[in-house]
Amino acid sequence: MKQQLEKLGFSPKESDVYLALLELGTAAVSDVAKRANINRSTTYIILDSLAERGLVSTSENQNIKFFSVTPPERLLQYMQDLVKKNTELVGLAHNLLPELKSLYIGVGPKPRVQFFEGTEGLKTAYEDTLTSKETIRAYASIENMHKAIPSYFPEYYQRRTKQNIAIRAIFPDTVEARERIKHNKEESRESLLVPSDKYAFSPEINIYDNKIVFMSLVEKFALVVESQELADALKKVFELSWAEAKNLNKKHGSKNKQKTG
User: Fold this and answer.
1) Average of pLDDT values for 221-237?
2) Burial classification of residue 37, based on how many CB atoms lie within 10 Å of its CB (0-12 exposed, 13-18 middle, 19 or more buried)
């Protein structure tokens, strides 16, 4: 039950205090602290916080403050109120978006660098690629992508395709890559495979519009660089890589290339 409460947003100590009071019924802070195995001052702060959320009620008897858990249905109502409030905040953010975007664009041509960490940081970087107004150029390792964020793909591919954002990608030739490129047409992808014994790599690079996104899928961080000059240069480097990857395919008699059709 404690784990379920934590999924609802309770901290571990809040869960302990809430469950202790639920078992005690009505109790003074010292009794709750003892049952929850948390010091008295911390327990008092937590009880006040739960009371502010309407999950705990208070009463006094002989100048002693007592606490009781409100009916469990109140917890459901609290979560429903929270969802409603967050929905309203999402609407507010949506209304603010045009103005925020105008300010964001108004930064001007000065290069901009953003750093993101962890799994959520990688997701943020991938989500930014869905703003692309042109075909994305990418160096990527399929197995490292799927290993880093296993629950994110292929739903990301579907959303990219739905938004009519195509991609040209160079992959190391692996079993996972060969399996993925079978879906090239339905995922708006054109790809080339390069020998993994010579050209294996784990980081990913995406180039689109005025941006270059560098992602370490092993160390889990992303660097988004906004610079038209650098983006244009790396697009040319990619075209050289693409041409050489084609030559490698021809040289080895490979039929690795899969077109979108």
Assistant:
1) 96
2) exposed
